[in-house]
Amino acid sequence: MNEFINKQKNIILIFLAIITSISFIDTIRKGLINGCDFQWHPSKLFWDGINHYEKFLNQGNFDFLCQGGQYAHGLHVILFPYSQLEWEPARIAWVVTNVIFAFVIPLLICKKFNISKYKTLIILMIFLTCYPTRMTINYGQQSLLVFFFLMLPFIYKSGFGSFLSGMSIFKYSTGYIIFLYFLVKKKYKDFLIATSPYLLGWIIYFVYTQSDPIKNFFEPLQWILKTGYARDGDIYSILNNYFFSDLEYYYRFLLAVLMFVINTIFLIKTIKIKNDLLLMGLVCLCPLIFLPHSNYDYVLLLPLLIYGFSNLNLMINKINLFFVVYYFFINRIVKHQLDIDYIYQPIMLILMISVFSLNIYYYKE
Hints:
Layout: H1 2-7, H2 9-33, H3 40-47, H4 52-59, H5 73-78, H6 80-83, H7 87-112, H8 117-129, H9 131-139, H10 143-155, H11 159-165, H12 172-184, H13 188-208, H14 213-226, H15 235-244, H16 249-270, H17 276-290, H18 302-310, H19 315-338, H20 341-362
Helix pairs in contact: 2-8, 2-9, 4-14, 7-8, 7-9, 7-10, 8-18, 10-11, 11-13, 12-13, 12-17, 15-16, 16-17, 17-18, 17-20, 18-19, 19-20
């Protein structure tokens, strides 16, 4: 069987390329008519001198499509070029941006960790056709942008890489992990460098909107907690849904702090791993375990997929591949068909923690 596959490599590659092209063209088409999650409107409000956090908090809702602006100040600052366009051309420009990220991210990781060209092409096609990538482009999400900045310290170990990685915190539920990682690794200099984009974004925001600096610093978190953002596939969301949903929002803040503490314990175990690709994979897995996320955030599983391809002879890598492929292509279908999230999602969370633990245990030896 393996000999047959080796002989037919080019034919298999061409066949997969055709499937990928059809799927990805359809994804772009959907992105050009949807893109509702792209945070164009909050950014436009900011560059018009309006504090969108204060505005939305006062009125209890946001104004345009799904664009609630529940992100850090810096995101709305760096979206300046898009905010100067009208909605339709801005949406097109964001689709192009996400498409670029969809290609660049897997290619950069594969090149860094010396993955063969054939495997790189297979990985690229898997990533372009999987649900998380397609949903990110379709909905106009920021997940690929955040993932790009999050991976940089593992690709470029420099002060500039650390600086850019700080932009991942623009999406709190994902980017927090790089700061915990720097602290646990005792990379205090990198930690301080990484805080710079956040602080710069905050300063630019409150100066430009003439907002109270202290009040504005906490407004993003206040707005996120007030909207009660939670899902059902992570520890925070499960605890929030069953125990904290009827309480004041500051209790949810304490719950988030608890998640950071437990996540730190996980990272203490993780940093002992010497393989940087696996280390990146497990670090990226943490936000999916601890804090709210949606299907498009599973793009963070890409490093674990690449690690699985790096050595297919290991049983743990076969498990990693099955796990990631399930989330990339099957999880969403099963979830919608069963329609029993209260059972299914906790089971999947247990599976995710188990995969994390198996990788820690296997490489502990």
